[in-house]
């Protein structure tokens, strides 16, 4: 009994420290800390702008090197599951690869959240 509680407690601590982001597939709500949630919301707005502008999202491009509203975050489009095109550095955010941003939001070409970290 104590071991089960210890393992459960450790899991919860790790999840909290990792700043987990989850998407509830039933209602598409996102939960996580305030900065991550703000970054995801800003990423969704950037995604809508890209779609409205006719940007080709099929190759998984970076659509925001750094979010103006949430500095330190980039926005990248990728496939889920990943495709070879997603591993091409030309399709990834240069600011993240260079360390200018330390976090990213990854959306699929349909604008659904893959991950935010």
Provide an overview of this structure:
The protein is of the alpha+beta class and 117 residues long. It contains 3 helices and 6 strands. It has helices at 2-17, 34-52, 94-97; strands at residues 22-24, 29-31, 62-64, 73-77, 103-107, 113-116. The protein has a 4-stranded mixed sheet with strand order 3-4-5-6. Strands 1-2 form a two-stranded antiparallel ribbon. A hairpin with an 8-residue loop joins strand 3 (62-64) and strand 4 (73-77). The radius of gyration is 16 Å and the shape is globular. The N and C termini lie far apart (34 Å).
Report mean pLDDT, rounded to a whole number: 82
Task: State the distance separating the first and last CA atoms.
Answer: 34 Å
Total helices: the number is 3
Query: Order of SSEs, N→C?
Result: HEEHEEHEE
Rg for CA atoms: 16 Å
Sheet/helix structural class: alpha+beta
**Count the strands?**
6
